[in-house]
# Entry
Amino acid sequence: MAEAQMMRSVVRVTPRHVRVVDLPRPQLEAGTAVVRVRAAGICGSDLHGYRERDQPEARPQGHEVAGEVVGLAPHPGSQPAVREGDLVALDTICLGRACGACRWCREGVYFHCERKRRGDDWAGGFAEYIKRDVRGLFPLPAGIGPAEGAMVEPLAVAVHAVRLAQLQRGETVAIIGAGTIGLMCVMAAAAMGAGAVYAMARHPHQAELARALGASDALLGAPEEAAVAVRERTGGLGADLAIETVGGEAPTLNQAWSLVRRRGRVAVLGVFGHQVPVNLGAPLGKEVTVCFPVCYGDQDGRHDYDVAIDLIASRKAPVTKLLTHRFALEEAAAAFAAADDKSSRSIKVQFHMDR
# Structure
């Protein structure tokens, strides 16, 4: 294949070891666009694979992506919402892969599409180019650059959770975790009408940033101490809504039960790859409603990406305050090491292709 048809890409070769390699550029097909990646963020889920998976990657990962449309092949008979040259945020996981015709796509819950397109040509954003369905591309208004555009995806995760959990204006929200998704939930809840917002943080720099982003307070220390503090601040009741954002093997579901009031709600955003011990008596005794938001989609006639973009454009969600580290694609090893090591004070690490 000619050199012009190759691109630089980041792949994992062994745990905690990534390499920059040349791979074929994606090719247009009907209903797709090719986007030159301008910024791509490293997500917590990317770090899980970076740390643990032994199998080498054949193609790049990366789903927090913004870039410039450089090739466009609309669906036959349709008028796309984007043009070549547009700066866009990409829904790389759901709408950008979805078939658009099944029951789940018709209902706007594209994550559940059972006919998502896959294969080597549908790789991720840790590369110079990426291909997705044109329906998964969201134009960014003037004033939003690539760094903010690549933050649309994690903010949309938080927006989806807040909307699915039916946050009511003035309600108290307790957020477990102050990594990227926890901090995005702080911004989303505050911007979408919450009253007091309390964040549970592990590290002082996370707590400091949570307050700067709109949290009424950020609580360090043991889960039991945080639960006591939230009850004290809510007249002994607890939060109306608790959002769990940690996952893994942490006992954070049980912490959520202790934070929420009777007949309150819990939204579980953290990814639990293994079974974890859960006390079901506590939420049963409180008659708690629990939901498990995943990714994003259409709710009440609007896509979560559209809501997220509006929050960024209106400056209600100052997402670039999370951006602690920028790297060129060729600096992939240093980028992943910084994201993996919280002593670096990293929160959001991004690749920027303009360097």
About this structure: The radius of gyration is 20 Å. The chain has a mean pLDDT of 95.
